[in-house]
């Protein structure tokens, strides 16, 4: 069985060639069979007509000559059979010649049809992680092969963007993790090099080291949360967004907190949802600036069209609509001048916000407030009853 499979042509070109030739041979055989039957029937009809007309033609002849029509009919029948045999043999020879020609033409046509595929294969082999900017760029009519090449080019574009984002994320994460380590090292070195350091100085240094350690812990926790959310849900449980948000309400001097927490049951990962609310709360507090009504944060939960919803709004600087998308990029925030910049030591920013709902089949649209600040609304799938 293995040897038979090994002998069978494996290339698509050979398969198409055999398919074309096979279809031609089948069609040719059917055509010759139909022609042979029609010719045979026509000859039989002519012979019958002749046998009917022969007695009339022999009327008036001597009796000894009337028996000649049987001899004539026999000779005519033999000639007809010979003609049919010749037709069959010549047709079979012509079919064999055309079958061989169809193999050659099928091979050439299959090669012509598969030429774009060979170009695409060669191009795909050249492309790797180091040159994802290259494209197949197949030219030609808008057929299935052109659509396949364009789809592959679109895939390469998405992969290039993904690799670029990944490299940027790794670079930013390395910078964010290195900053507190550098600070810790500097505090320790300065304290150790001070010969007159007393107990109070040492306690202050240890406090600063502990603070930067906590900052690293929060950053690593945020990175792990982001990675978990991008892998999808690992477990599901019933969580009420109202109760979860109630335990995570923000606090702060001079900060007015408004809350309207109606029941909003969710079937999802409690840890991811807790991290989502915490991230939104911390962002609303950290980037809050006093407005006409002072500094405030508003939180509300409930059901909208049967879907559990969490909405957080805050006062803050005026944000342009085209800057909102940048807020949800890793390690990207709005600087004091209103342009995007980095803010070291503050964690990955807001990418957790859309990542967690997306992992649970939801979404988190955001839009700027006209008088400053940001509105973020988390919509999650309804819980099946």
Tertiary shape: elongated
Using the CA coordinates, give the radius of gyration: 42 Å
* Alpha carbon gap, first and last residue: 56 Å
Helix content: 55-70%
Mean pLDDT: 77
Q: How many β-strand stretches? A: 9
Helix and strand sequence: HHHHHEHEEHEEHEEHEE
Helical region count?
A: 9
* Main beta-sheet annotation: 5 strands, mixed
If you had to describe this structure to a student in words, what would you say it looks like?
The chain is α+β, with helices and mostly antiparallel strands and 385 residues long. It is 59% helix and 12% strand. The protein has helices at residues 2-7, 12-57, 68-126, 144-193, 199-231, 241-246, 270-286, 324-327, 352-359, and strands at residues 237-240, 255-261, 265-268, 295-304, 307-314, 333-334, 340-341, 366-368, 374-379. The protein has a 5-stranded mixed β-sheet. The protein has a two-stranded antiparallel sheet with strand order 1-3. Strand 8 and strand 9 (374-379) form a beta hairpin.
Q: Which features does this protein show?
A:
single chain; 385 residues; alpha+beta; five-stranded mixed β-sheet; two-stranded antiparallel ribbon; 9 strands
Summary of the model, kept short:
The protein has 385 residues and is an alpha+beta fold.
Topology (SSEs and partners):
Layout: H1 2-7, H2 12-57, H3 68-126, H4 144-193, H5 199-231, E1 237-240, H6 241-246, E2 255-261, E3 265-268, H7 270-286, E4 295-304, E5 307-314, H8 324-327, E6 333-334, E7 340-341, H9 352-359, E8 366-368, E9 374-379
Parallel strand pairs: 2-4
Antiparallel strand pairs: 1-3, 4-5, 5-9, 6-7, 8-9
């Amino acid at each position: 069985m293995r040897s038979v499979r090994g002998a069978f042509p494996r290339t698509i070109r050979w398969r198409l060639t055999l398919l074309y030739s096979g279809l031609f041979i089948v069609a040719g055989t059917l055509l010759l069979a139909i022609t042979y039957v029609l010719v045979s029937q026509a000859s039989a009809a002519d012979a019958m007509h002749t046998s009917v007309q022969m007695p009339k033609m022999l009327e008036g002849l001597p009796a000894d000559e009337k028996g000649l029509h049987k001899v004539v009919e026999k000779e005519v029948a033999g000639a007809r059979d010979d003609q049919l045999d010749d037709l069959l043999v010549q047709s079979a020879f012509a079919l064999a010649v055309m079958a061989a020609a169809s193999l050659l033409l099928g091979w050439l046509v299959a090669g012509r049809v598969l030429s774009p595929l060979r170009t695409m294969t060669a191009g795909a082999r050249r492309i790797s992680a180091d040159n994802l900017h290259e494209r197949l760029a197949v030219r030609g009519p808008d057929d299935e092969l052109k659509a396949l090449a364009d789809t592959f080019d679109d895939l390469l574009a998405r992969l290039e963007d993904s690799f670029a984002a990944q490299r940027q994320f790794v670079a930013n994460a390395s910078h964010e993790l290195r900053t507190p380590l550098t600070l810790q090292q500097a505090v320790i070195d300065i304290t150790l090099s001070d010969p007159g350091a007393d107990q109070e100085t040492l306690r202050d240094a240890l406090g600063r080291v502990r603070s930067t350690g906590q900052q690293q812990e929060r950053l690593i926790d945020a990175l792990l949360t982001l990675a978990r959310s991008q892998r999808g849900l690992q477990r599901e449980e019933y969580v009420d967004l109202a109760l979860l948000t109630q335990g995570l309400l923000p606090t702060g001097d001079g900060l007015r907190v408004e809350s309207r927490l109606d029941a909003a049951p969710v079937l999802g990962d409690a840890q991811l949802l807790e991290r989502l609310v915490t991230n939104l709360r911390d962002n609303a507090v950290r980037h809050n600036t006093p407005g006409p009504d002072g500094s405030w944060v508003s939180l509300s939960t409930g059901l909208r069209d049967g879907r559990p919803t969490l909405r957080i709004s805050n006062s803050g600087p005026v944000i342009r609509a085209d800057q909102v998308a940048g807020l949800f990029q890793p390690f990207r925030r709005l600087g004091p001048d209103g342009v995007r910049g980095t803010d070291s030591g503050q964690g990955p920013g807001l990418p957790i916000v859309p990542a967690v709902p997306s992992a649970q089949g939801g979404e988190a649209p955001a839009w700027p407030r006209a008088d400053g600040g940001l509105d973020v609304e988390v919509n999650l799938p309804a819980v099946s009853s």
